[in-house]
Structures are given as structure tokens and as C-alpha cells.
Amino acid sequence: MIDYKGVLNTIYQEIIQETDKGEIASYIPELANVDKNTFGIHLQLVSGDAFSVGDSEKKFSIQSISKVLTLALALSHVGSEIWNRIDVEPSGNPFNHLALLEMEKGIPRNPLINSGAIVIADILLSVLEHPKEDFLDFVRELTGDYSIDYNYTVADSEMQTGFNNFAAANLLKSFDNLHNDVSDVLDFYFHQCSLEMSCAQLTRAFYTFADQGNNIKGKTRLKKSQIKRINAIMLTCGFYDEAGEFAFEVGLPGKSGVGGGIVALLPNEFVISVWAPGLNERGNSKLGMEALEKFTTLTNQSIF
Ligand code: GLN
Question: Mean pLDDT over all residues of the chain?
Fold first, then answer.
């Protein structure tokens, strides 16, 4: 049996001594106030045990990590029809890149870059009766935790300043790949990004992707084949133009957000979430990536 508690403590001691903690995302004004020194990890084993260290119970803005959850909900409603409107190739470009979207005639490279997630938001707007409430219910049910909520101030902050996302949505609309009103779709998208969770909650939300579609309470909403595909997309696209680096250094499917969170998993074994708000130049948590590299190296647990 691996000494997970000891491994997490070792990582914690090494990481908190790092002087270069990366940069907080300030392009969303409301995120700029977060303390760069916060750092937490939560690990949940599929066999039942859980371990944590540091600020693992403090809530943060999950931002783009929410794109995996909206993809899961859309897949559970409309199935593989999604792939008529979005591709499944790594983009090799930043999360908010627009040129590729224009060159490829409004078909986003994958559902985990902004343009792809905006199309997923559009799909959800078309199939859900009360999109924001229904998505929140889905996340709460996955996690078994009804305290999870949006941060309306963060959502509003992005609605005021998210010009790049308005550009992406308008470009999608011009290619007829957005069926609802641009501001309605972005209102939903900014709310999904504003969801707040702690590392412990995030780990429980993603448990379903490690346990073949069973949520933490044993309920099933997603098919095994859908879980397999979502994990493949996380591995190849979860870190934008750093997806190769994450696979190389860490070797797990995962997803990052500009709030500084990362969640990663080893199918049938565990889910792990890390929060360190300082980002590297690619918009991924600098110390979060380092912590996960140490974790898979020390435990010798990765998909490779
Ligand atoms: N809400 C952010 C945006 O759309 C999400 C980006 C991210 O987390 N990479 O810009």
C-alpha cells in the first residue's frame, strides 16, 4: 500500500518553499484578489480512502474545469450528435485563440477550449428547460453536495470584460454554429465558469470519470463509453497548448482552470485535485502542475 499521506506531506513541504509561484489571472478582475500563497491537495481513492493537505477545503473559481462537466451533461442528453459541431483534436493553441476557429469555418477544435465550450453551452441552452439551475443540479448530484453554487460577482465580472469570448461567440454565430442568442449563451458560459468548489468538492465531482460513470454515491448518469471518451479528451486537450507537457510530466487525464485549480485522475484508481492560484505563461497552475508531476513520480501511478 502506498503511503499517500506521506507523499502529500512531502509534496506540500517542497511546494510551499518555491519562490516563483506564477501569476494570478488578472484579466478577470474579480479573480485578481486571490492570495498567491494558498495551496491545497485532495486525493480520493476509488477504493474509498481520502487524503488531503493544505487549503483543501477552501473554495476557488473552477473556471475552465467546468467545461468537462458541461460536456458530460451535454453528452448525457444528445450523445454523439455533439461531434457534428465540435472536433476532438488538440488545438496546440491558447484556450482563447480565435484564428483557428475562423480558418476551420466555425468548428472548434475540441470542447475544452473556449469556443468549443461555448458551443456546448449553446447545446445545453437548447435542451435544458432551466439551463443554469439544471446544470447546477447536475453538478450537485454528481458531487453529492448541495452547497455548491455559482459566484455571481465573478460571472458578472466576466460578462463586463469577456470581449474575447464575445468575439468567439459572434464568430461561431457567423458560421451558423450557435443557435441561441449570443448574450444568453455567454451568460450561461460565464456562470458555469464561476462555479466555486474546494479541492475536496472538485475531487468528488470528478469521481464519476474515475469510476466508470458511477458518482461518489454510486449513482450512474454517464455510460462507460462516454467516460472513456471524456477522459481521452482531457488527456489530449485539457491543458490547451500545454497538453503534451502535462501528459509528458504527469501522465494523467486532467483539466485546468485559470482560477489555479487542476483535477486529474487515474481510471479505476483515484481522482486528485490541486489548487495553487499562480499560473504559468500558458494559463495553467504553475505549482499545481509541479505538484502533480511529483505525485505521479513518487507514487509511480500514471496511465503510462
Ligand atoms: N472563464 C475563462 C474564460 O473564458 C475560462 C478560461 C480558463 O479557465 N482557461 O476566459
Answer: 96
